[in-house]
Amino acid sequence: MNGQPISGVSVRAGRGRGGARLSALALGALLVLTACGGGDDGKDGARSDGKGGGSVENAASQAVVNIAPKDGADAVATTGALKVTAEKGKLTTVTVQDDKGTAVEGKISADGASWEPLHHLAGSTKYKVHAVAKDADGRESAKDTTFTTLVPQNTFIGHYTPENGSTVGVGMPVSINFTRGITNPEGVEKAIKVTAEPSVPIEGHWFGNDRLDFRPEKYWAAGTKVTVKLNLDGVEGREGVYGKQAKSFTFTIGRSQVSTVDAAAHTMSVVRDGKEIKNVPITAGAPSTTTYNGQMVISEKYKVTRMNGATVGFGGEYDIKDVPHAMRLSTSGTFVHGNYWASAGTFGSANVSHGCIGLRDVRGGYDKGMPSAWFYDNSIIGDVVVVKNSKDKQIAPDNGLNGWNMSWAEWTK
Predict the structure, then answer these.
(1) What strands lie across the sheet with 241-243, from one edge to the other?
(2) CATH 2.60.40.3710 residue ranges in the chain?
(3) What is the average pLDDT across 311-325?
(4) Which of 17, 145, 191, 313 is 20 to 30 A off residue 324, Cα-Cα?
(5) Which of 120, 205, 266, 337 is catalytic?
């Protein structure tokens, strides 16, 4: 072997022990080089089974996340434009937030292939989308985008009753009057949520295209707390007209008070929490101007108001500038109010009004002992007044807050 190369290393035999030692060292080096060198398969030691440091473990996820609208998009529609999908994988996380950090509620489909918001988006708002999907091997892929919704040129809001924080009677509905006629009632109604504690089914009913009322099947239970959420911002109420309102309000139902007027007997029985607390003599509508029958809700209260017949179709038959203790029962002008101009003997014996329910009172309404003063002081907005045995038709349910004159089947259809 003297002078012959071994695997590219030239080794010369030495003399004596020193030469033998040199040959051993050279051979050791040769063995080390051979052991540490790469194999001839060109795989640099990668495991073909993918279980340790191999190419499969380090490969990119096959899942692809797609988000519509595209990143940076402007003037995006508030409904129908936002959608997240996954290819070659399943969505595991989708979060959408506006620039204030408010989350958009949504749902991933059962097969993990798509996500859509449960509600419309707000107008003039920037949103951030973060979505993650996994492929069949559990590897994740993520995508982040932003977009901005359209700026509405035409808007609407809803004027609502009762007032936030108020305590009202058991007959009080939630009534919302919109500033523009609505041609997408389903979308608008879906954006309004009315809940009660204790819970009770509550349904909405449209009167025309600009009024939406909500009520339970029967009068509210005393003590119920009602919450209303108006999520109208971004709802397209009619073509090109979008809601501009995001507001919540609450109100409480007070004690139960239902007063029943018997127009034939000229009396009114006031029942509170199931017990009669007073029976009041009244005068109802005269034979030529009878009082509506039906369930009516007190919607306004005035210690003193003016009543002019010309405003309700009676020409110049009357114009009384100081009617005391007046409480509105209908939009068309039905009130229960104090009457100081009829003789005391009229109440409880004759019907002489122009359709209102009159209770004995004094001019100026200063006498707290008068039946009208007592009833005014013991009534709140939302209390119910039921009229029966009048020779007139039942009041229309949209004439005031009087939807109780519809059956539940009519209300919910």
Answers:
(1) 154-156, 241-243, 236-238
(2) 154-253
(3) 78
(4) 313
(5) 337
- In the annotation, is 36 catalytic? no
| Better pLDDT: 2 or 374 | 374
**Nearest to 149, CA basis, from 210, 235, 252:** 235
CATH T-level assignment (fold) for domain 257-406: L,D-transpeptidase catalytic domain-like (2.40.440)
CA atoms of 189 and 194, how far apart (whole Å) = 10
Amino acid symbol at 249: F
- The CATH architecture of the domain made up of 64-149 is Sandwich (2.60)
pLDDT digits (tens, 9 = 90+) for 36-68: 334 444 444 444 444 444 455 679 999 999 999
Q: DSSP secondary structure string, 374-394?
A: HHHHT--TT-EEEEES-SSPB
pTM summary value? 0.82
Average confidence score pLDDT of the chain: 89
Exposed e or buried b per residue across 33-49, where buried means at least 16 C-beta atoms within 10 angstroms of its C-beta: eeeeeeeeeeeeebeee
Task: Kindly report, as residue ranges, where domains of CATH 2.60.40.3780 are found in the chain.
Answer: 64-149
CATH number for the domain whose boundaries are 154-253: 2.60.40.3710
Q: Is 119 known to be catalytic?
A: no
